[in-house]
Amino acid sequence: MIYVLAALLPPLGLLLNGQPFSAIFNLVLIVFCLVFGLIFHVLLLVPSAHALIAVHMKREDRRHREVVEAIRQHGPPPGYRL
User: Fold this and answer.
1) How far, rounded to the nearest angstrom, does the alpha carbon of residue 66 sit from its chain's CA centroid?
2) What are the UniProt keywords, alphabetically (predicted)?
3) In terms of Cα–Cα distance, which of 70, 65, 61, 69 is closest to 17?
4) 71-81 burial string, b = 16+ CB within 10 Å, else e?
5) Into how many domains does the chain fold?
6) pLDDT at position 82, please?
C-alpha cells in the first residue's frame, strides 16, 4: 500500500515511511519538475520514481537489518560456510 501512496502522493508516502528529509527533497523536486516538465514531459514522473525508489531502499534496509539481527541471535543457518 505504501508503494501506491508513494506513486500517487510522493511526499506523503515518504513521510509515512519515516523519511522526512526525502519528503522535503521530493517537494523541491516536484516544484522543479513542474516548471521544466512543461517542456520535457518525462520530468513529471521523476518525483514519483524518486519516492518509489526511496521507499524500496528503506524497506530493503529494514529487511537486511532483521536478517543480520536474527543471525546474531541464533547463529548462521546449518550448512553455512564462513
Assistant:
1) 18
2) Membrane, Transmembrane, Transmembrane helix
3) 61
4) eeeeeeeeeee
5) 1
6) 64
